[in-house]
User: Fold this.
Amino acid sequence: MDMQVAKKKLGLKERYAVMTRGLDWTPSYQKMEDIYPYIAYEGIKIHDWDKWEDPFRLTMDAYWKYQAEKERKLYAIIDAFAQNNGHLNVTDARYLNTVKLFISGISPLEYVAHRGFAHAGRQFPGPGPRVACLMQSLDEIRHAQTQVHAISNYNKYYNGMHDFHHAHDRVWFLSVPKSFFDDAITAGPFEFMVSIGFSFEYVLTNLLFVPFVSGAAYNGDMGTMTFGFSAQSDEARHMTLGLEVIKFILQQDPANVPIVQRWIDKWTWRGYRVLTLVAMMMDYMLPKRTMSWKEAWEVYFEENGGALFKDLARYGIKMPDCAAQIALEKDHLSHQAWSTFYNYAAAANFHTWMPDEDEMAWLSSKYPESYDKYYRPRMEYWREEAAKGNRFYNKTLPMLCQTCQIPMIFTEPGDPTKLCYREVDYKGDKYHFCSDHCKKIFEDEPEKYVQAWLPVHQIYQGNCFPEGTDPTVEGFDPLAAVLKYYNLEFGRDNLDFEVSEDRKNFAEWRGQATKNV
Amino acid sequence: MQIDLRTVSIKPLRHTFDNIARRIGADKPASRYQEGTLDMQQTANFHYRPTWDPDHLIYDTARTAIKMADWYAFKDPRQFYYGAYTLARAKQQDTAEANFDFVENRGLAATLPDEVRDTVLQMLIPLRHVAWGSNMNNAGICAYGYGTAFTQPCIYQSMDQLGIAQYITRVGLLLGDVDVLDSAKKAWMEDDAWQGLRRYVEDCMVIKDPVELFVAQNVALDGLLYPLVYETIIDDVLSSKGGTPVAMLTQFMTDWYTEVKKWIDATMKTAAAESDENKAILGKWVVAWRDRAAAALLPVGRIALGERTDELTAEVVQQFNARMAKAGVPV
Assistant:
């Protein structure tokens, strides 16, 4: 037996390199372009995949160990929450509507992220980004599942969540988040990384994931809070990946810069439009508010995002132009959105309501420039009408923006009294947009956006009724037929919070749990 | 004797989500595997076609020749959702760590007979590249397959194979140095013994049909490689020559394969039982990829088995055929 020579001790970085990059080889029996067929068509040039800096160094053995520990704790809390009727500890039953919005609007996106990162990981020829993407793919299925498992208990007691997968693919407003992720996953792998990895996970996560989790913490929702906190270290990894991806692409070739800039512009706006739902959640749906939408935008985008774009300036990237318009909208966004959902409460899977006097005072103080002047009078009127038994439900269908798919409810930048409309003629058809930015996104890729499955168009074309429905019979009730297609139950899943079964049950159950009747 | 702890009991409105109730036939409490798996993938009203594959929808049953009336007919007998998966792997990881510690602390690597050590370096270490190929192939099955019941286990499989590639790397570093990895890679790239296998792995990387890729990678290649390398060569042949420490270092792979085989067999059984057409296609794929895999493994097996290679490989193929026959796939 030979004497063993003392071994070279590998540093962390070298050790991680032999555990990942060292595994890869340059194929010779198949051509690179056949193995990685989707890597060239976006025009991004990568000269040296080895320049990739691993943003974190986690081998699988450490990953399993660390994640299993988190799962053990998380499921122990979820079980305890269910056993103790934890749902009765939320601030008030209106809060539950946030949970409905989350499970039907956000959780399905976690699943798409899982598949999208599997796709991107499979397609990148560089072993560094591949491993990071596949690890994120694995994390994302975790997030989808822990959310379903945590919210499963709420579904047992409250309405609106019972068929959330089915709803996500069909209900009108859910096409806003769905089309956002469909847009990302149908883009090329590099754009996917910029859209989800960078814009969504890095720039906007503090405005999406964080408000829901903080809202849960403020409102006594232990279930949602726990999966949120448990996902925090995963999210931190995803954020570092998002930032590394963008820097790597930009450093590889100057020709990449304008392409990436266009993607950042597009996805910041696309993401911001999805955040409309979060804005109204923060300002209207949380009984105990964490902060206003406007404050969140100022802290997380204008301050933190501003610093980020300053940092990216050395690569030739600038703050997206749309930031100027978003700044003009921040006094209006949540109010316009909530008014719309108040209107269409008959066709949604959650309840809406008018804010009470204290809440209106909070809104006035947070939005001194806009709330009293433009929105309070409208809301007071609706409240008075509701008190007289005339709760207003809008029975017509709104026109949708071809790109973001939000009803065309937004006002002209700088003029909150005038609705903003834009249109484009393309191949003999007219397409409508809520803003210059959505219009521009369409004009850059019209062949993609003409495909959009717009819920209102689909209803008018008769595609959103249960099979066998005859809309020509006398007395045909289109709303009832659409709700059947959505699998929503009229009077239980929809309408005003005041008349909801959730409200009644919550009061009764809380009484049962806290009083001796 | 039982104690009766009281909790406030409230009658729930429903016991699970509607989609689960429709699938399990009634509104009754569902398992976490069911709630975390069934219908997780979107199925309707996609907005745009992939710019990278405009002939298909984002998720599309037409990417494979296999036809299923319901892609949720597949069930993972391990009932793995993420939580169950990581807990299972963390436990195996503990054992693996203890084994590595045991071998390392007692200096057992130095006690290996030269013949065994050389065999391990020549035959086992290049397999880290095969595992890396499987990491990539299973990512592809997950990305382009249809239905969470079929695709979910593939991301677990993908990351397991990355883990295996990393365990093999650690074995290399324990028995030698970084140059051990370099020579193994050189052999993988250049030595005749490895070219059949490398060609096989690279050919898998261009298979477009996710179920065929599943057959080529998880059924055929792994179905021969794991029994041959880990059970026959390491656990039997090398152990009898004083190589038991090696068997300790690869226990993860042996245990892992015993476990994943159940899922692979269940998947084949369900797909084959669906229709005669499926059965015929699967049979054709299995036979073609099995024959290629067996031929590619012969020179690799020969490194350890010498003149007994043909005989022992034939045994492994025979066991494989019996497995497939049991799953209802004609071979």
